[in-house]
Write a structure and sequence with these properties.
352 residues; mainly alpha; 2 domains; four-stranded mixed beta sheet; 61% helix
């Protein structure tokens, strides 16, 4: 290097190296950008806004005397149910296999319901079938109910789902794009060569971290743009707040993945550790459904998970217009994971 040429900081050079390594791997590009988008398309279509599925009812339409009760006719002709006439044996088999939610047969003039009370669709089917039968028998409601559906952006299930998909995308790309690549470099004996250079461990680990963060804006823009174009989602709060929360989320996951990659030498072991970290958060952190369905004593521990904090914050900003101050608890959780993770990784990292 000429004397007149300004010396560049080693962290800058290391970060450029990480970026070049990443861009030269088409498979890595697919898993960081392509696969999350395909997952968003699949889940978004599967959980798109649509009318609720009608309860499925198997009607044993004839009594032992061979008569067809009026109630059976009412059920089979009702538009509030998907009812079909079945023999009792076939109806019970269908109920056991989950193909129908309720079986209705008659003991003389009395309808007999068969359903699984632990399966949420069973009691719902029972209530709807009861309403149909009571109305057919002449019952009149004393109170008129007015129903208004809510389908405005911000109140639909897809508006709840999209922040969860953003969280899953950032977690997956950070965990696999940082920790796994670090383990791969160790397996290829590259770290032994780095060990004889004058670089600092902090610079080396931060280069993985910064190279990951540089792709954050593109990932976030793709997910938010996809939701707006395909499903009509809106962001009620500040894009800057979402960007800051996403940055802290990606940093937290990158720090956790650095802890995994600090000492692991085998890629199969790295796969196991990454899945061990990710899978509980997939289930617990409210990406697909509210974690409040779990027992109340689990709520606070769940809120301390980085994916929970990220999903809650992005969801609050996007759907409720929350400010940076409103997201302070989630920001504190993500910052703690980031700082503690990087410090632990720095202290446990080894070149060989």
């Amino acid at each position: 290097m000429s004397a007149g040429k300004k010396r560049r900081h080693p962290l800058w050079e290391l970060t450029k190296t990480r970026l070049r390594e990443f861009l030269r791997e088409p498979a890595a590009l697919f898993w960081v950008f392509g696969f999350p988008l395909l997952m968003a398309i699949g889940l978004g279509v599967a959980f798109r806004s649509r009318p609720p599925e009608l309860p499925r009812v198997g009607v044993v339409a004839t009594t032992t005397a061979g008569d067809v009760p009026d109630g059976a006719r009412a059920l089979l002709s009702s538009k509030r149910l998907r009812a079909e006439a079945l023999r009792i044996e076939a109806a019970r088999r269908a109920l056991g296999a989950g193909k129908i939610d309720l079986v209705v047969e008659w003991d003389r003039e009395r309808p007999v319901f068969h359903f699984d009370p632990t399966y949420e669709r069973g009691p719902v089917a029972r209530l709807v079938a009861t309403e149909v039968l009571q109305s057919a028998a002449g019952r009149r409601d004393a109170v008129t109910i007015v129903e208004r559906s809510s389908s405005e952006p911000g109140s639909r299930y897809i508006d709840y789902l999209l922040p969860g998909l953003i969280g899953l995308n950032l977690m997956g790309s950070s965990m696999w794009g940082v920790g796994y690549n670090l383990v791969l470099a160790r397996k290829r004996r590259l770290l032994r060569r780095y060990a004889v250079t004058p670089m600092k461990r902090a610079h080396f680990l931060l280069s993985y971290f910064f190279s990951r963060i540089l792709f954050l804006g593109l990932e976030l823009g793709v997910m938010l743009g996809f939701g707006a174009v395909v499903f009509g989602t809106v962001v009620r709060g500040s894009y800057a707040t979402i960007g800051l929360v996403a940055f802290l989320g990606a940093a937290a996951f990158a720090a956790v993945s650095l802890v995994i990659g600090a000492r692991v030498e085998n890629t199969d072991v790295a796969n196991g550790w990454i899945n061990f970290v990710q899978l509980p958060m997939w289930v617990l952190s409210g990406a697909f459904f509210s974690y409040e369905r779990f027992p109340e004593w689990l709520h606070e521990p769940i809120r301390l998970l980085p994916l929970t904090a990220l999903c809650d914050a992005v969801r609050a900003v996007s759907n409720a217009g929350a400010s940076l101050v409103d997201c302070a608890p989630q920001i504190a959780v993500l910052t703690t994971w980031c700082v503690v993770g990087f410090v632990v990784a720095l202290r446990t990292f080894r070149w060989q």
